[in-house]
Amino acid sequence: YAQQKYPYEMSEYTPSSENLKAREEFRNMRFGLFIHWGIYSVLGDGEWVMHNQRIPYDKYKRLADFFYPMDFDAREWVKIAKDAGMKYITITSRHHDGFSMFDTEASDYNIVDATPYGKDPLKELAEECKKEGIKLNFYYSLLDWGREDYGFGKKIVDGGPVDTDWDSYIEFMKTQLTELLTNYGEVGCVWFDGHWERKNANWHYDQIYSLIHDLSPATLIANNHHIQPIPGEDIQVFERDLPGENFAGYSKGVKVSKLPLETCATIGEAWGFNLNEKNYKSPKEIIHLLVKAAGKDANLLLNVGPMPNGKIQPEFVSILNEVGQWLKKYGETIYGTRGQIIPNQEWGTITAKDNTLFVHVLNQPGLPYVFIPQFDKKVLSATSFDKNVKLKFKQQKEGLFIYTGGLKENDIDQIIKLKIK
Ligand code: FHN
Question: Is the CB of 239 under 6 A from ligand 1?
Answer without folding.
Answer: yes
